[in-house]
Amino acid sequence: MGRIKAVIFDYGAVISTPQTKKEIRALENLAAADRERFWEAYWRYRREYDTVLTAEEYWRRVFADCRAVWREGLLPQLVFYDTRSWTALNRPMLAFARLLKACRFKVGLLSNMPEDILKEMRKKFPWLQGGVFDSVLFSCDIKIAKPDPVVFHRSLQELGVAAGETIFVDDMAANIKAAREIGLKTIQYRAFGRFLRDFLRFLL
């Protein structure tokens, strides 16, 4: 097995926690629609929101699909609770990324993220500006989202490493599959303890 030189992390549900329950309920209450239809619509247009759609375009599509009633003043509330749902940190994983950096691994962050949420993240998390990650790529900045292989190649290029010497960590199976297909070593994130065991296997 080749030496591991770099680790690329997803943000959502890896460096952050999964969406928080309080904010999930708040979004459901604002929609006042069938829950299953709401979440199907939420994810149906998410990749477009992560790249090119404005918040209003995205949420109007979601509401239309789940047959929710669009009301004046909804948009700021939807953006607020959606942002809060994705900005609780998985602190053990962030600490682990810092440790890797201190141990001279190359460390990347590669995430699908809409502009509205990223704007608040950059205000809240100064470590996004430097000190932890050698490369930070968000889909709304580069207008391409995972699982498009282009984003993985761009991350590798910025880190200056080859796919075979890099571990990619993500919670979503589609992204893991795409990364593996271009030669990255992969870990599908579920819990911190399990992640550590999987990570150490690559080093042994």
Question: What this model shows, in words?
Answer:
The protein has 204 residues and is of the alpha/beta class. It has 2 domains: 129 residues, 3-Layer(aba) Sandwich (Rossmann fold); 65 residues. It contains 12 helices and 5 strands. It has a 5-stranded parallel β-sheet with strand order 3-2-1-4-5, with helices on both faces. The relative contact order is 0.18.
Short description:
54% of the residues lie in helices and 11% in strands. The chain has 204 residues and is an alpha/beta fold.
List keywords for this structure.
204 residues, alpha/beta, Rossmann fold, 2 domains, 12 helices, 54% helix
- Average pLDDT taken over every residue: 97
Label the CATH architecture of the largest domain. 3-Layer(aba) Sandwich
Poorly predicted sequence stretches spanning 5 or more consecutive residues: none
Q: Count the helices. How many?
A: 12
> What portion of residues is helical?
40-55%
Give a count of the beta strands, DSSP E runs of length 2 or more.
5
| Order of strands across the main sheet | 3-2-1-4-5
Query: Judging from the principal axes of the Cα atoms, what is the shape?
Result: elongated
